[in-house]
Amino acid sequence: MNPPQSSTNKHFIGLDIGGTKILGVLVEAGSESGPLTFSELATATRPSVKGNQGVLDSALTVVSTLLDQADLPVNRIGGIGIGIPGAVNASTGVVYNAVNLGLEQLELRRELEDRLGVPVAVNNDVKIAAIGAAHDLGLDGSVVYLNIGTGMAACLVEDGEIFAGTTGVAGEIGHLPVDPDGVPCGCGQVGCLETIASGSAITRQWPSDATHPSDELLAEHLGGNPEATRIFRSFASGIAQAVRVIVLSYDPEMVILGGGMRKLGQPLSAEITAAFEEWGSASPFIASLNLGARLSILPHESNAGATGAALMAHRITTAHTPCES
Ligand SMILES: [Zn+2]
Fold first, then answer.
1. How far is the centre of ligand 1, averaged over its atoms, from the C-alpha of 191 (Å)?
2. For residue 78, how far is its CA from the centre of ligand 1 (angstroms)?
3. Ligand 1 center to residue 173 CA distance, Å?
4. How far does residue 222's CA lie from ligand 1's centre (Å)?
5. What CA–CA distance (Å, rounded) separates 35 from 16?
6. Gap between the Cα atoms of 77 and 72, Å rounded
């Protein structure tokens, strides 16, 4: 009943493990000529369970749900890619200090390879989402993904490859201090960008019982509440500053704004654009950077984290040669 085993598996699984949920996709890779395309055969979401065993069990549940949905045995899967918060050693697949998942250290790759018998690749969630976002938007060349979730972090992607730096810290621009009179940051510095422009910055400045305090802040801002407008504009200005730093540092073709806070959508991009225009009116140099034209917001429906993880799985199981097109 099972289809004959092909010499090269074309099916890959990507898992985006977050603090509250695990999103998985099972894809089939398209033809080997031309740009890589994926057809999505199954998707599954499960709540994240904290702790080493919880993370392993919930990841395995998502994998078996995907296989059931696609009616495929595990030996038809070429590889599994995983994006997870925390510090990740991409060569060993060991995850360190994923605080929101209650992990101090987990040999995620080895544990899953032992259980499933399939190659597994693991990397930090923002880095994985960066390659997924560039793929989803069809962008080659140099692209920076700016993730605004609970915190702020960025990742440079060059021709589909992650640039992580010598120790993996490249892109941690949320910890760039910009306000000497600002509030202390969890990193031990004062006035970091992340204390102004992140989900945690909104929660601190706009305490609320709402499920999504940022949505409430947005509604109050649009309704004319001056305090909400002040906080919203400061938040948008922090993102604008991050984009300026990114463009001055890397000069990418595009900066993609992703993470949960991107859902603030058009009102957010309007405030960011207003900040760019204010700086540009005072500085022909800044105006010449065309910051507004270089910023793109990741669409609501994009599952960049899971797509990027599937891309990584595809890479570890195919002889990786850069595209020549
Ligand atoms: Zn900091």
1. 7
2. 39
3. 9
4. 30
5. 23
6. 8
* Fold match, 11-130+303-316 / 139-297: yes
Are the beta carbons of 128 and 145 closer than 8 angstroms?
A: no
Ligand 1 centroid vs 170 CA: distance in angstroms? Answer: 14
Phi and psi (nearest 5°) for 209?
-90, -5
Q: What is the pLDDT of residue 72?
A: 96
**Per-residue pLDDT tens over the stretch 275-300:** 999 999 999 999 999 999 999 999 98
Domain 139-297 class in CATH:
alpha beta
Among residues 50, 121, 52, 116, the alpha carbon closest in space to that of 80 is found at 121
* Residue 278 CA to its chain's centroid (Å): 29
- Indicate left, alpha or beta for 16 from its phi (over 0: left) and psi (-120 to 50: alpha): beta
State the CATH class of domain 11-130+303-316: alpha beta
Under the banding of pLDDT at 50, 70 and 90, the label for residue 126 is: very high
pLDDT at 3: 38
* pLDDT tens string 130-165: 999 999 999 989 999 999 998 999 999 998 889 988
DSSP code for 171: T
Q: How far apart are the CA of 169 and the centre of ligand 1, in A? A: 13
Amino acid in position 51 = G
CA of 242 to the centre of ligand 1 (A): 13
Q: How far is the CA of 202 from the centre of ligand 1 (A)?
A: 15
Residue 171 CA, ligand 1 centroid: distance in Å: 13
The pTM for the full model equals: 0.89
Q: In angstroms, what is the span from residue 193 Cα to ligand 1's centroid?
A: 7
Domain boundaries, given as residue ranges, for the chain: 11-130+303-316, 139-297
Ligand 1 centroid – CA 103 distance (Å): 21
Inter-axis angle of helices 213-222 and 226-250, to 10 degrees?
Answer: 110
Task: Pull the structure tokens for residue 316.
Answer: 């570890």
Tokens of 135: 């793929």
